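Troubleshooting: if your tokenizer reports a length mismatch, compare your output against this known-good record of 78 residues.
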Amino acid sequence: MFPRIDYNDSYRTQTDVDFMSNHKKEVIGAWMQAIGNMVEAYGSTPSTPLTSETRDDFNRIGLTMQSVGSALEADGQS
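Known-good structure output:
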């Protein structure tokens, strides 16, 4: 039913076995940036019933996700 995949093919090049293609890095990076932006915005919203410590945590997590997403996008473009 499904085609057989032979992972021991000697004709494969290094680019065939890369962990993540450049396009995937850019897409995943863009999504991480977007989600990080939403997390940070939630933590920065004054009307949410959160403690200041929880707000700081949301802001840190959001900024970290944005940074990692940006780095993935930059790596995908190289």
